[in-house]
Design a protein that fits this description.
With 456 residues, the protein is an alpha/beta fold. The strands form 3 sheets. The protein has a 9-stranded mixed beta sheet with strand order 7-8-6-9-10-11-12-13-14. The protein folds into 3 domains: 9-98, NAD(P)-binding Rossmann-like Domain (Rossmann fold, 3-Layer(aba) Sandwich); 107-306, Mur-like, catalytic domain (UDP-N-acetylmuramoyl-L-alanine:D-glutamate ligase); 315-448, Protein-Tyrosine Phosphatase, Chain A, CATH 3.90.190. The longest helix is centred in the middle third of the chain and has 16 residues, at 277-292. Helix content is 32%, strand content 21%. The termini are far apart. Its main location: cytoplasm.
Length: 456
């Protein structure tokens, strides 16, 4: 993999936030960068306005790209690996890498990388906060929002990176000092096609690890548990129960960690402010990683007590007439929603549905039947979820978020909950999962303000 970019000709496929960060980094390195995107320049003004003047632009399509002109290509995560241009580049023998690979070749600080189907952002955020609490200069980024390329010129003790399967498609030398695989359940099958392919991409997180590195795996997730490196990497496991190996678990209300002969209490479970077994798992994983990186239990406990969670992840929105509304719009796949439902006992109405990721809805239907008292379905997958639910009742299809919120409220009694946890992507009705969550919060506010009917 190239580590000296001066005068190299580099093609960046896909602009947006990641492509912009890569272009600016390559500009600082003296490379001759070209960015190409299917969108027109008028649709990319917020990014093109911030490109270095030296960067050439081929926008509105790739017709102006001459593949043989380039030494290297950098692909943005939103561009499918098997799309025409990336496939042609690989076919021509040109290295095609993701932005995290580009940045990694230039980073001096050790990397903690977190992947998994669910829980990545919460775990990444917690690790960053714990390292900062211990006095480390820490950059938190990757798939979480701040591209790794922006960390290259900074002086950091640690770089903490959330990593997606899309980003792992394009690694060559990316090697985390500490790697975490939180879970692997069906997601993005519309892009990766099979669970085998998706799981293999997650496993790439540790393919370059070697002696002295640490891999942290979820002992209670069958797919993650089965992933094993071929090297002498130290393996730690986490789970609510202890699984006989070094790692983290819960014992007598405390999160415990054991690495070799050392056994310590990391935090008390009652101090964890974010609800759900899945968030307990996230906290165990984050605490184990931070402890491995040198953070002491007192510093870990302080962060656990203070952390109130992230927007759109089991976020308490408001209470209306004794009914509590929760925003879990980040629940964009079936397993995430199943975990969010698991803490309820027929006292929750779920709002679910959206655009399909290619997974079947039978497991979701079973979870709704076991835990929910009602279901409101939205988006293009609503008919499929209704069909999967069979005789479960009450259930209703809603036309928009206002209709969903009022319909869900009508199914509730005082003390019940309404949970937006769609189990699907958002792009059929909304710009993003964040937009979907904000629309939900706005609808709840209108309901509380009397602008919506309380029944439908």
């Amino acid at each position: 993999m190239i580590k000296e970019y001066k005068h190299k000709k580099v093609l960046i496929i896909g602009l947006a936030r990641t492509g912009l960060a890569a272009a600016r980094l390559l500009g600082r390195m003296g490379a001759r960068a070209t960015v190409t995107d299917m969108k027109k320049e008028s649709d990319l003004a917020e990014f093109t306005d911030r490109l270095p003047e030296s960067v050439e632009k081929i926008l509105g399509g790739h017709d102006g790209v001459t593949i043989g002109d380039y030494d290297l290509a950098v692909i943005s995560p939103g561009v499918p690996w098997d799309a025409s241009l990336p496939a042609s580049i690989r076919g021509a023998g040109i290295n095609l890498v993701s932005e995290i690979e580009l940045a990694f070749t230039l980073l001096s600080a050790p990397v903690i990388a977190i992947t998994g189907t669910n829980g990545k952002t919460t775990t990444t955020t917690l690790i960053g906060l714990m390292l900062e609490e211990a006095g480390n200069k820490t950059y938190v980024g990757g798939n979480i929002g701040a591209p790794l390329s922006d960390a290259v010129d900074m002086e950091n003790d640690w770089v903490v990176s959330e990593v997606s399967s899309f980003q792992l498609e394009g690694i060559k030398s990316f090697r985390p000092r500490i790697g975490l695989i939180l879970n692997v359940t069906p997601d993005h099958l519309d892009r990766h096609k099979t669970m085998e392919a998706y799981t293999a991409l997650k496993a790439r997180l540790f393919e370059n690890q070697r002696e002295g590195d640490t891999l942290i795996l979820n002992a209670e997730d069958s797919a993650a548990r089965s992933l094993l490196p071929d090297t002498s990497v130290r393996i730690l496991r986490f789970g609510v129960s202890r699984h006989g190996e070094d790692g983290a678990w819960v014992e007598d209300g405390k999160a415990m960690a054991s690495i070799g002969p050392l056994k310590v209490a990391l935090f008390e479970v009652k101090d964890l402010q974010i609800p759900g077994v899945h968030n307990l798992e996230n906290a165990l994983a984050a605490s184990l990683a931070a402890f491995t990186a040198g953070v002491n239990p007192g510093q870990i406990k302080k962060v656990i007590r203070a952390f109130r969670g992230l927007p759109h992840r089991m976020e308490m929105v408001d209470e209306v007439d004794g009914v509590t509304f929760l925003n879990d719009s980040k629940g964009t796949n079936i397993d995430a929603t199943i975990k969010s439902l698991s803490g309820y006992n027929k006292n929750v109405v779920i709002i679910a549905g959206g655009s399909s990721k290619g997974a079947g809805f039978a497991p979701l239907a079973r979870a709704i039947g076991a835990h929910a008292k009602g279901a409101v379905l939205i988006g293009e997958t609503a008919p499929a979820i209704v069909k999967a639910l069979g005789e479960f009742a009450p259930k209703k299809r809603a036309q928009d978020m206002d209709d969903a919120v009022t319909s869900a409220r009508a199914m509730c009694a005082q003390g019940d909950f309404v949970l937006l946890s769609p189990a699907c992507a958002s792009f059929d009705m909304f710009e993003s999962y964040e937009d979907r969550g904000e629309k939900f919060k706005e609808a709840v506010a209108r309901l509380k303000g009397g602008q919506l009917n309380h029944a439908s």
